[in-house]
Amino acid sequence: MSGQWYEGRVALVTGAGSGIGRAVAVRLAAAGAWVVGCDLDAEALAATGKAIADAGHHVTTVVGDVSAQADVDRIVAQLPDGRVDVLANVAGVMDYFLPVTEVDDLTWERVMAVNVTGPMRLSRAVLPLMRAAGGGAIVNVASIGGLTGAVAGTAYVTSKHALVGMTRSIAALYAEDGIRANVVCPGGVETNIGRTATPKVPWAYQRLEKSFARTTRVAKPDEIATLVSWLGSDEAVNVNGAVVASDGGFTA
Questions:
Q1: Is 201 helix (H, G, I), strand (E, B) or coil?
Q2: Identified catalytic residue from 96, 156, 174, 205
Q3: Which residues contact 131 (CB under 8 A, 6 or more apart)?
Q4: 3 lies in a domain?
């Protein structure tokens, strides 16, 4: 890391309890940011907060669901002095690899709520703060599921394509305010995304599995966090609206 990129800055990180979100929160805190981390898993989030605090860095943790407006309001209310320089939308859920003919409304609505509505509501909340401050950066974590349809179920693929589109829209509309928005599309990553990644329809998973042969390696969360950290920093000042795959060459 090149110096204290985030000294004196505030970073809001969703999904901070584990996986990529925890790695991002820890890395940004180590780079000088006051991290406001949120997650639904109170125990996991507390562990992230302790790790950051024990290292002597600034952290505030807020248990909340990014898809719920009331929780978004509570999260944003915890920003120190109402300031936010970087928003990292990392929280996400899978969809059991369900094809469109098998997807139920509950799964569809939950995946879209967490993967699309959450980032939208948080972006909607922080953009006025960034505009008033003269700038900021939003880094969304999508997936190669936002670039191809062959790696997950219909709800997840749709949600990640939508997140890519949202990022580009923000980049185009707010560039003149000094605000940048970029999206990272990881391939396989060693995370505990949990039971929503358990396949439920064998024939669909078998068809998707054919594409998995292109996987060259599975990334570690900090390898994705490194990219998120750079995109949110001033070193990436000329990068706006970029869709950056970090997949070991899967989509090459």
A1: coil
A2: 156
A3: 174, 177, 179
A4: no
- Each residue's pLDDT expressed in tens, for the chain with a length of 252 residues: 445 889 999 999 999 999 999 999 999 999 999 999 999 999 999 999 999 999 999 999 999 999 999 999 999 999 999 999 999 999 999 999 999 999 999 999 999 999 999 999 999 999 999 999 999 999 999 999 999 999 999 999 999 999 999 999 999 999 999 999 999 999 999 987 767 889 999 999 999 999 988 888 899 999 999 999 999 999 999 999 999 999 999 998
How many Å apart are CA 163 and CA 210, to the nearest integer? 25
**Domain count along the chain:** 1
The domain that contains 111 carries what CATH number?
3.40.50.720
Look at residue 1 and tell me if it is in a domain: no
CA 53 from centre of chain: 22
Active-site residue flag, 6: no
